């Protein structure tokens, strides 16, 4: 099981909260696709002979690509990798980029079989706070058109913890989602990342600050409503009906291998982790892989253990001490179980045979709890 990630950094405008490498410009657009194809050629052996289960177009705003660009990239991947039959191929989209013609063309003329739509909220005041391009009407129309075009494998993003998002409005956001009968939801707490526009505006008292207590209440409502509608909470921020888990994101959470193409994209093949330059000019002008890759690291046993604990505790599959022993050794099992006992005494962990999982009340603190297990 391995995956491919394609980073498309272009946006119509930069959202206030975003800290991914992206920009509101079309500079180098005419040569960008060819640069991606060149990088694919240069790194085609990074995953060895592994077959590919998933392809994911992320960003930025990948739905800004036209049909020819999407097909050119996908066809080149098929020429260079062993892509499994029925591979999950996801395109991240924004509602303002979608219309009936674009969606029908995506369905008819490309191999895209899953859409991830960045809705974030169905209320215009929330979208204005986040500096999103679309409005609520765009979002609702785009979902309807996507379903009409035949995209039954679709997910949308919703953000909670937005200042001004009352519990009543948050419940209404979730009701609208469930009424559409979409099978997957990704929902994130609004986080103020350093050096983002949101961080600057809050520090300058230009907009309201995020209230952590409200975020916790929203998260509780999220768990309550998704459970009520028979969604499986399979990762801290992800909920799905049976059979509709994100296969691509599950690669990250299960420690499988992936290669990322495009500026700032990350890759992991079990031996090394590396990431590309976050600079479009340097990326498109690079003629060798050494110029594209900004940094490479060989993970120590401790780092691999820490990553396994962090990702596995975020999932419904949990953290397995049999896996820890097989991969890292008995010493790490002993260290894990010592900390696990402390967390169980706080009612933060439950044990099922060799597997440890977060309790419902502990999920909001997942990353903090995982860090208590880390070995440095």
What does it look like?
With 376 residues, this protein is of the alpha/beta class. It has two domains: 251 residues, Aldolase class I (TIM Barrel), CATH 3.20.20; 71 residues, Arc Repressor Mutant, subunit A (Orthogonal Bundle). Helix content is 41%, strand content 22%. The protein is built from 15 helices and 15 strands. Strand 14 and strand 15 form a beta hairpin. Helix 13 runs antiparallel to helix 14. The two termini are 29 Å apart.
Descriptive labels:
9-stranded mixed sheet, alpha/beta, 3-stranded antiparallel sheet, Arc Repressor Mutant, subunit A, 376 residues, 15 helices, TIM Barrel
Please trace the helix and strand order, writing H or E for each element. Answer: EHEHEHEHHEHEHHEEHEEEHHEHEHHEEH
What do we call the CATH topology of the largest domain?
Answer: TIM Barrel
Distance between the termini: 29 Å
- The radius of gyration is 21 Å
Tally the helices: 15
The CATH architecture category of the largest domain equals Alpha-Beta Barrel
Shape: globular
Low-pLDDT regions: none
SS-based class: alpha/beta
Number of spatially distinct domains: 2
Strand order of the largest sheet: 7-8-6-5-4-3-2-1-9
Q: Give the helix proportion (percent range).
A: 40-55%
CATH superfamily of the largest domain: Aldolase class I
